[in-house]
Design brief:
The complex is a heterotrimer of chains A (251), B (358) and C (285).
Chain A lengths: L2 E12 L2 E12 L3 E5 L6 H8 L9 E9 L2 E2 L5 H7 E4 L11 H11 L5 H14 L3 H4 L13 H14 L4 E5 L7 H14 L4 E5 L3 H7 L2 E6 L2 E7 H6 L4 H7 L5
Parallel strand pairs in A: 3-8, 3-9, 6-7, 7-8
Antiparallel strand pairs in A: 1-2, 1-4, 4-5, 9-10
Helix pairs in contact in A: 3-4, 3-6, 4-6, 6-7
Chain B lengths: L10 H7 L7 H5 L26 H38 L9 E2 L4 E2 L2 H32 L2 H16 L2 H28 L14 H26 L2 H9 L4 H30 L2 H6 L17 H8 L6 H33 L9
Antiparallel strand pairs in B: 1-2
Helix pairs in contact in B: 3-12, 4-7, 4-9, 4-11, 5-7, 6-7, 7-9, 8-9, 9-12, 11-12
Chain C lengths: L2 H41 L5 H5 L13 H32 L3 H14 L3 H16 L4 H26 L2 H9 L4 H12 L1 H16 L3 H4 L19 H10 L3 H28 L10
Classes of the chains: A alpha/beta (251), B mainly alpha (358), C mainly alpha (285).
Chain lengths: 251, 358, 285
């Protein structure tokens, strides 16, 4: 099975503080990989390196080799990387000044797609994939992106990210701000999306990791302590630190 | 935050506030000499003084209230002064005053139209020049420029705001006007005289000069409010755009400017308000001729300029009253424009304190 | 449209936007530099001891200075500040500590509106209130005009600075049994001291350059005057009169006066920003 994301010796800094100490990981394509660990362990930082969002923070730096679908992400403009890699954030962030339609189409329009028909098709397809189509199909252009409920907004953001047809989807605690029902809907989504994309999901909820991801990586203080199939991590971890975290001894 | 200490906190306030509750402070806190720190409340007021009315706290509050009332008094006095003293002209001319263009004090003819025209045209011209510059500076400083440049550039705009109007006027008279007359006007005449806006002789003292100097003066306020409004746009909006693969300019366009649109318009309108009332610099370069001309090369006159120029020379009561009526009109227009602008800015910044000045 | 061309165009637009924004910013900063440069070029040669200590010579004669205008400005500003600052601070205190209600909102709104009123209108008001009533122009009338301008400015900045003081600080004082009025003066006001002073000095610098409100109040004076009840000279007024005149020597002096005025104002602002840059409370920028 080809790997979608290959990371070799990835280090990241905030100013002088080293936040990631040499991460090595290979993420399988068409599977979901969960990234777990206590607060401050570097899981968000890691994921944000994958689409080069980390460096948008002032005084932040990253170094190492990251290949996505064979492409070296530090050898091409960041803009190109981000078109291949979609991101969904912890708090839903639709563009409030745009309608639902325009939100989903935003990425496409930036990429030059002007054809009305194409846009309509992609918007519908993305919203269906995000399981939001039925709820909003009548108010696509009338309601603003920000007027939806929290769970709907997050699915809108997912649709927006899907519209540009990425290979990899990064999700930074996508359901942590949502109620249990919306969370369940998003987890169902991940199941569906896995077949077409590679998903990397940061989560502090271990049950969620075991529900949606085939692989799990445990981060601690900027190190990748253990990376293996999810069942193994949660039933028979190799590292004591992993075991302590899983069983709730800390974090 | 600062509720009065001797007010009985009602139930609805208790819930709304979430903090202050309990019986009258005097019963809860004990006397000033032996304060009991109650463990249950966080916002207990200072020890009360029993039921006496003339305690130091209420005296203090009363004094502060008096100071506050002066603000209201000033507006009241302004209105009363302006209305009173313009009554004479109002009775004589009525609404016609604002529709007539003859301004001949000697003959007793007073029409304010040329001044309204001059004020509007010069202000619009100023906006046309200032807005692109001011918004560009604001966007550059907030989103684009390298960190070490930020402070110097914003300090530079602050200094531009600090230069008094009379000095802008002086500079405009002796530097800008010759520059426009000798170097700029010929080019404008050559390429744009077909529009009718740049035609006729240019002696320097003109609507164009007034518009240009005014634009420099309003750039700082438009720029500073725009910067505030841009800064309030949440970071996650920028990240959302970037994550979709937007270039920096696209991110600014989609994630920042669009969100701040209302506030930027408010900033522009605030600039307009400032331009409408600008007096000294304009008076020195506009030519002070009460006429309505199509060309920007022609001299003009604004509402503020005519007051500045002619008030001390006004001999008879009607003359004075006419000028004050112009002042009243100017007051009303600037107040309306400023209210509109403040409202627009408020919708974006949601109550973050509005700047009193630049 | 080929993809490569599109991506190139997007990158190009990005660079172009940055370039244009930088260029326009340079134009703005360049204008500032140009103005300062001319002030220095045209005025520096004329700012000498004679200029700073002598009064204007009769019309047409060369020489003389703006000493009376410097003193006059100081007097008017002094009066204006004396009247305006206390009321401004008082109003600011009220708005911050007692005014989080409807009434406060009305006052706040009014103050913001007042801040936008053209200064010439303020001059007309002061004319009506003082000059017309007393029957003559006076330095006092000028002071009143400037005070009217200062009050809403100082009130709003004082309020903003006081609001930056965390509630926890006030509560600590209450918890110690300090009465509200005492807390406001000795604790809250003291904590916000630097910011409030900044606001006052910035308002002062603004007022110092105003001409329009003085035109119908202080009027101007070619001679020495130290009386509050007579017309008095002021630097901005003098510059204005000289600029309008047909005499080259007066133009020269106008530049000198302008340079002195700008130097004082810019100096005040820079000093204030520099000294209070590291104060305990900073306005969120």
């Amino acid at each position: 099975m080809p790997t979608a994301v290959e990371v070799r010796d990835l280090k990241a800094w905030f100013g002088k503080t080293e936040a990631l100490h040499g991460i090595n990981i290979a993420v399988e394509s068409n599977h979901a990989t969960a990234v777990i660990g206590p607060s401050g362990c570097g899981k968000s930082t890691f994921v944000r390196c994958l689409n080069r969002m980390h460096e948008t923070i002032p005084e932040a730096k990253a170094q190492g080799e990251v290949k996505i679908g064979g492409m070296d992400i530090y050898g091409v403009p960041a803009v190109d990387v981000r078109r291949k890699v979609g991101m969904v954030f912890q708090k839903p962030n639709p563009f409030p000044s745009m309608s639902i339609y325009d939100n989903v189409a935003a990425g496409l329009k930036l990429n030059g797609t002007r054809n009305r028909k194409t846009l309509d098709e992609v918007v519908e397809h993305s919203l269906r994939q995000a399981a939001l189509w039925d709820e909003v199909k009548d108010v696509l252009k009338k309601k603003s992106g920000a007027s939806l409920s929290g769970g709907q907004q997050q699915r809108l953001c997912i649709a927006r990210a899907l519209a540009v047809d990425p290979e990899v989807m990064l999700m930074d605690e996508p359901a942590s701000a949502l109620d249990p029902i919306s969370t369940a809907k998003i987890e169902d989504l991940i199941f569906e999306l896995k077949q077409r994309l590679t998903i990397v999901i940061v989560t502090h909820n271990m049950q969620q990791a075991s529900r949606v991801a085939e692989y799990t990586g445990f981060f601690l203080m900027g190190h990748l302590v253990e990376f293996d199939r999810t069942e193994k991590i949660f039933t028979n971890p190799s590292d004591k630190r992993t075991e302590d975290y899983i069983t709730g001894r800390f974090g | 935050m600062g509720a009065a200490p001797d007010r009985h906190i009602s139930t609805s306030e208790r819930k709304k506030d979430g903090r202050a509750f309990g019986p009258e402070p005097s019963k809860a806190m004990g006397s000033p000499e032996s304060p009991k720190i109650s463990l249950v409340t966080t916002a207990q007021k200072a020890p009360a003084w029993g039921r006496s009315l003339f305690n130091p706290d209420s005296i203090f509050k009363g004094l502060m209230l008096v100071a506050t009332l002066t603000v209201l008094a000033v507006v009241g006095l302004t209105l009363s002064e302006l209305l009173q003293r313009s009554a004479l002209a109002w009775q004589k001319f009525g609404f016609h005053f604002f529709a007539t263009s003859a301004w001949d004090p000697v003959a007793g003819e007073f029409g304010a139209l040329p001044f309204i025209f001059g004020t509007i045209v010069s202000s619009i011209l100023a906006l046309l020049i200032a807005v692109p510059l001011a918004v560009a500076v604001a966007v550059f400083v907030t989103e684009m420029c390298p960190k070490p440049l930020r402070k110097p550039i914003s300090f530079a705009t602050e200094l531009l705001a600090a230069i008094p109007s009379v000095i802008y006027g002086l500079w405009a008279m002796f530097i800008l006007v010759p520059l426009l007359r000798v170097h700029v006007a010929p080019i404008l005449t050559k390429y744009f005289s077909w529009t009718g806006v740049f035609s006729g002789p240019m002696y320097g003292y003109s609507m164009l000069a007034a518009g240009v100097v005014m634009s420099i003066m309003i750039i700082p306020i438009i720029s500073s409010i725009t910067r505030e409004v841009l800064a309030v746009v949440p970071q996650h909006q920028r990240e959302a755009a970037l994550a979709l693969g937007a270039t920096r300019w696209e991110m600014i366009r989609v994630g920042v400017l669009k969100n701040a649109r209302a506030g930027i318009i408010g900033a522009i309108i605030l600039g307009l308000g400032r331009a409408l009332g600008e007096t000294i610099a304009v008076t020195l370069v506009i030519g002070n001729t009460p006429q309505i001309a199509k060309s920007l090369f022609a001299p003009g006159y604004t509402m503020a300029s005519v007051i500045a120029n002619e008030f001390n020379e006004a001999t008879d009561a009607l003359y004075v009253s006419a000028l004050i009526e112009i002042g009243l009109a100017l007051f009303i227009v600037t107040v309306i424009v400023n209210i509109l602008a403040q409202f627009l800015v408020w919708t974006v910044t949601r109550g973050a304190p509005a700047r009193a000045n630049v | 449209m080929s993809n490569k061309y599109l991506q190139f165009r997007r990158r190009f637009t990005d660079y172009l936007a940055t370039f244009v924004a930088a260029l326009l910013s340079a134009v703005v900063v360049g204008t500032l530099v140009a103005i300062f440069a001319y002030l220095v070029i045209k005025g520096a040669g004329s700012v000498n001891w004679a200029f700073l200590t002598r009064t204007p010579k009769p019309v047409g004669e060369i020489g003389g200075g703006m000493a009376n205008a410097l003193v006059g400005s100081a007097l008017i500003l002094g009066m204006g500040s004396l009247m305006g600052i206390p009321f401004g601070i008082g109003a600011g205190i009220y708005l911050a500590e007692y005014g989080r209600n409807r009434f406060g909102a009305v006052v706040r709104f009014t103050a913001d509106v007042l801040n936008g009123v053209p200064s010439i209108v303020i001059g007309l008001v002061a004319y009506g209130l003082v000059v017309f009533t007393e029957g003559h122009f006076s330095a006092f009338a000028g002071g009143v005009a400037l005070a009217i301008m200062m009050v809403p400015m100082v009130a709003r900045t004082t309020e903003q600075m006081l609001l930056l003081v965390p509630q926890a600080v006030r509560e600590a004082a209450f918890g110690l049994g300090i009465p509200q009025w005492r807390t406001t003066i000795s604790i809250t006001l003291a904590t916000a001291r630097a910011g409030i002073l900044t606001g006052i000095m910035l308002a002062f610098a603004r007022i110092a350059g105003e001409t329009a409100p003085l035109m119908f109040t202080a009027l101007g004076n070619q001679f020495w005057s130290f009386s509050a009840n007579q017309p008095i000279a002021a630097v901005p007024l003098q510059i204005y009169t000289y600029a309008l005149s047909p005499y080259d020597d007066w133009h020269r002096q106008a530049w000198a006066g302008a340079l002195v005025l700008v130097a004082l104002i810019v100096g005040t602002i820079s000093l204030v920003r520099f000294i209070f840059a590291r104060s305990t409370l900073r306005e969120a920028r």
